[in-house]
Each structure stands twice: as structure tokens, then as C-alpha cells.
């Protein structure tokens, strides 16, 4: 969804691998599913937020999730994600959110 817009994308199926990518690559925006095998997206964002800024700790992040209750949304935002996108994901919505977060990141 994002590559045709010019985004450089790296993917991971597990939170631990995603954390290593954040440390090594330091992307502009992190997009994380909440439900992943092993550690979940909440674990990932907690680990990311514990990193120093120069290792990715201040990266802007969006959570993708099938959990759509208001309590779920509040938990996502309270855990350290800047934005929440419910599944199924509308490609245009995800692109807009990523652009918005990339702009936010440029202001940090």
C-alpha cells in the first residue's frame, strides 16, 4: 500500500524483529499490528519508547488492530502510539495517517 507512494518499507512478522529494525534502521514512522505471535504491539511500543531518541525511542507510531472498542482505542493511545487505525484497513486512510505522522515527525 505504501511503496507505490514512494515509501521505503521494511516488514516484520514478530515484535522482537520489529524492535531490531527500529534500532538499526530508525524509520520515520512505525506501523504495528497489536496482535502478533509472541510479544504483541503493546510490548513493542513499550520497548520502543524505552529506547533513547537516537535509537528510535521517539519514532511516531500507528497501531493497526481489529480491536475496535473505545477501551481498546484508549489503551492503544495511552500505551504510546500516536494514532490508531482499525482493521480492515482502508489503503487511503493508512496512507493519509502515515503522511500525517511523517509530517509530525519532521516537527520533532
Describe this structure in words.
The structure is a single chain. This protein is α/β, with parallel strands linked by helices and about 110 residues long. It has a single domain (about 10-105), classed as Rossmann fold. Helix content is about 45%, strand content about 15%. The protein has helices spanning about 15-25, 40-50, 70-80, 90-105; strands spanning about 30-35, 60-65, 85. Strands 1-2-3 form a 3-stranded parallel beta sheet. The two termini are about 25 Å apart.
Radius of gyration, taken over Cα atoms and rounded to an integer in Å: 13 Å
Quaternary: single chain
Order of helices and strands: HEHEHEH
The CATH architecture classification is: 3-Layer(aba) Sandwich
Structural class: alpha/beta
Strand content: 5-15%
Q: Tell me roughly what share of residues is in helical segments.
A: 40-55%
CATH superfamily: Response regulator
Q: Separation of termini?
A: 26 Å
Largest sheet: 3 strands, parallel
Number of domains: 1
> Given the structure, what is the number of helices?
4
Amino acid at each position: 500500500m505504501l511503496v507505490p507512494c514512494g515509501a521505503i518499507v521494511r516488514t516484520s512478522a514478530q515484535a522482537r524483529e520489529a524492535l531490531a529494525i527500529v534500532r538499526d534502521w530508525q524509520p520515520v514512522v512505525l506501523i504495528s499490528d497489536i496482535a502478533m505471535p509472541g510479544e504483541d504491539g503493546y510490548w513493542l511500543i513499550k520497548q520502543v519508547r524505552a529506547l533513547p531518541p537516537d535509537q528510535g525511542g521517539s519514532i511516531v507510531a500507528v497501531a493497526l488492530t481489529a480491536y475496535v472498542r473505545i477501551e481498546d482505542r484508549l489503551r492503544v493511545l495511552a500505551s504510546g502510539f500516536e494514532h490508531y487505525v482499525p482493521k480492515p484497513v482502508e489503503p487511503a486512510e493508512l496512507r493519509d495517517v502515515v503522511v500525517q505522522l511523517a509530517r509530525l515527525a519532521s516537527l520533532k
